[in-house]
Amino acid sequence: MALVLSQFENILFLDADNFAMKNLNHVFDTDIYKETGLVIWPDLWRRFTAPAYYKIAEIPVNLKQRVRYSYDDVLPPSQYTQDLQADFTTEDTKVPFHDLNGTIADPASESGQMMINKRKHFHTLLLALYYNIYGPRWYYNMFSQGTAGEGDKETFISAAHALGIPYYQVRTPLGFDGFHHDVKAYQGLGLMQHDFDQDYKWHQELLKKVHDNIDEYSKFNPKYDVDITYKKDLLQKNGPTKSDMVDVMFLHASFYKFDPRTLYDQDCFKTSKGEHVRGYRNQRRYGGFDFELFNFQALQDKLCNKDPAHRYRNFKYLNEKIDSEEKWNNVCNYIDDHVKYLESTPVSSLS
């Protein structure tokens, strides 16, 4: 509803626990945003939108035309499909429904960040609002079928797709930042989402490379494997590499959230022995920015400042959880100790 009522024409929507990791001054001036007016970032999962949705929304799906292989929409279908005239709905073809022309492409969407132009996509927002009003009862389950993160995340792309209004799906898979706990195994703390403009540009370069060598890439490859043939042999050799990555644009710090009471109660950023540990270790991907230290210093400065005149604790939800000076002292001691640990243990010393 806030998106519908906002008077801004261009909107960058971010969840409260999502952080911009680079300068965003240019984002509304990029070619792909001006062309489409809607940018959607990826989730981890394959798409689970029920085929019934396409019938309800009267979206035509060509059951005899495969146009991609999962997240590979660059190589021609003839490389991984021997019979392009087959009826791909039969069980023995084993072609995922969302590889067919007319469907929304893999992967699922992650709505912790979204860019939208209301002039281009006002009707998209109205239809998405309808999907959200009836989401808990109908559409959330129809779009995600009970899979992880079911909620509003697929309503925007589904609305734009149903209306035939262009949108851009970021191709670069999301990354994780986190650490290995000595008992709880790997703790994935934040989702790294990538620069959509850089993503678009290298995707265009890959399309051009394939187009310029179409005879070579059109040949059927019985050993085609999306992770090897596309991701390793084409993408990593010709697209972003370890020395030329698509920048991290957003860090969605969804677990743990920087809620001081929860961090203290659950001994977050600590080993089972009570020793402090650095959680966010991808500082190189953030241009040297120490994300974890920045947030803990903010908590320290605003909540635990030694000077009461510069301390602000008037948050109702915190005061309900931390209802005594003793509890505040415990929380602040935890924050102070973690700041000291981070300052004495830069990321470079861990590699």
TrEMBL record:
**Pathway(s) where this gene product acts:** Protein modification; protein glycosylation
Q: Output the Gene Ontology terms for molecular function.
A: alpha-1,2-mannosyltransferase activity
Q: Name the InterPro entries for this protein.
A: Alpha_mannosyltransferase, Nucleotide-diphossugar_trans
Subcellular location(s): the record lists: Golgi apparatus
* Keywords from the named record: Golgi apparatus, Transferase
GO terms under biological process:
mannan biosynthetic process
Please tell me one Gene Ontology term that the record gives under cellular component.
Golgi apparatus
Question: Pfam families annotated for this entry?
Answer: Mannosyl_trans3
Family note: Belongs to the MNN1/MNT family.
> What is the protein named?
Nucleotide-diphospho-sugar transferase domain-containing protein
